[in-house]
Amino acid sequence: MSALFNFQSLLSLLLLMVCTCTYLRSLFPSLVDRNKTGMLGLCWKFARVGERKSPYISVGCLAMAFSLLFWS
């Protein structure tokens, strides 16, 4: 089943993208910041969400980890 039709898979995909892009921005800030349009612009937007909403993202990651470990 595709991640688009399964809510749990879609949520884990979004959380992974946000966390990965935020981590990449901490390693290579010039690469992510100079590309604000196109496909790499999506990475910039995910990094912004990860930086500004980090407590909510971390709670989401913990909830997703708990649900994947114990409810799947």
Structural overview:
- The chain is mainly α and 72 residues long.
- It is built from four helices and no strands.
Short note summarizing the structure:
The chain is mainly α and 72 residues long. Helices cover 81% and strands 0% of the residues.
Q: Layout of SSEs?
A:
Blueprint lengths: L6 H21 L1 H6 L4 H14 L1 H17 L2
Helix pairs in contact: 1-3, 1-4
Which residues form runs of ≥5 with pLDDT under 50?
A: none
The fraction of residues assigned to DSSP E strands is under 5%
Tally of strands: 0
Mean pLDDT: 85
**Helix/sheet category:** mainly alpha
Strand count, sense and closure of the main sheet?
A: none
C-alpha-based Rg, rounded: 13 Å
Order of helices and strands: HHHH
Distance between the termini: 15 Å
- Give the overall silhouette: globular
Helix content: over 70%
The DSSP helix count reads 4
Key words describing this protein structure:
72 residues, mainly alpha, 4 helices, globular
